[in-house]
Every structure is written in structure tokens, then in C-alpha cells.
Amino acid sequence: MQTKTQRIDRFWTSDWSLSVLLTLMVTFIFFLIPLDVLGLETPLVGAVPFTLILFSGIVAVSHSTAMAVLFSAVALVSIAVHWARYAIYGTAWIGYDAIASFIAVAMLATIVLTHVFRAGPITASRIQGAIAAYLLIALMFAAIYMWIDFHTGNTAFGGSYIAPLTGENPLRRFVYFSFTTLTTVGYGDVVPINSFARAMSNLEAVIGQIFPAILLARLVSLEVSDHLAPRRETGAAVDGSR
Length: 242
Description:
Blueprint: H1 4-12, H2 16-32, H3 43-60, H4 65-89, H5 94-116, H6 124-151, E1 157-158, H7 170-182, E2 191-192, H8 195-241
């Protein structure tokens, strides 16, 4: 009879873990972050899926002791800084929170992509994992922008969406800007002014074009190929028997 730990390990080493991660990411980015507009206290609520996302990365690499120890240390520090910022220190810790979040999310994106491209057939869950990695890239750059803006005295960005944001959670602003940059939509209501912010925006725009055009398209083609392989083999066997 399997123990609970064995069942959890079996789940997180399966492709379904990537689908769960994508669900967490979509919930966090598209549903929880925007809720502060309604006057709801969402920072701590949003920190819950953030914590779950990071711990999912720890579990995903638990089969590798060295990676598990390394990522656990980084993730735990990031989680501690994240919760300390919201619960104790407030805006004074935005810079620490941004850099810790960037490192942890970057490591998680690396782990997810390693999981996506490990040996075995390409499945729909692996494609969903690649989409989750795409969302993680947007969060990585959002953290970079938040750090740049904080350390330049909130002068690194301009535009119509910047001026009225006094007291607003900066994460919502920069997640929005990061996605419009990653997808090259560029509405123009947030504009990078600082040279470093512009350089990061250019880099994100390039990644935003390359990632879906090469990586996602390649995964989809491999998934279709794996799906059609049994039919080709059956057809070849039938032709050979004639």
C-alpha cells in the first residue's frame, strides 16, 4: 500500500503537476491580482498561491537532492521576505521582495522547462507546463520592473497609468506592463523612461516573440507527432502484410 508521501511524489513527478501549476498561475495572475481594484485586501490572499507555486517547485525537484536543497533554500527565503513585506515592513521591503521573487520565479521557470523537456512523450500537460513557464517569465520581468522603479524613486516609468497610482499595490501595475510587453501589445499607458527599464523591456519583447514561435510551436508539433505515431505504425504494418 502506498504511503501518502509516495502518492504525492508520484503525482508531482507526473505531467499532471504541470497542469496544476498552470491553474495556480492563471488564478494568481488573472483573478487574484486584479481584485484590489474592488477594495479587497488581496496582498496576503495573493501570497497564498504565490507560496503554493514556490512549494510546488520544491516538490517537483524533490527527486534530486541537490536541486531540492538549493531551491528549497531560495524559495523559503523568498516566501519569508514576501510575507514579511505584507505583514510587517510594508513598502520599505518592496525592493527585497522584488529581487527575492525574481530569483525564486526564475528557478521555478527553469525547473518547469526541465520537466517539460524530460525524456518521454510530449503530452497536453507538458504543453500546459510550457504555457505556465511563459507566465512565469512575465512575473519575472514584473519583479524586475518593480525593483527598478523602487530603486529609482518611482521615476523609471511614465504614462497615463502611472500618475494616479499613489498607494496602489505596484505588483498589479507591473504585471500588467509585463504582459503587454511580453505579448508586444504595447498600449502606451505605461512607458519605460529609465535606460535599464527600457533595456529589460526590449529583452522581454524579444523573448515574448521567440518563446511561442519556437518553443510552444515545437512542443505542439511533437505532441501531434506522438499522437499520430501509433496510426502510422499500424498503417505500415498493414501495408507490410499485403
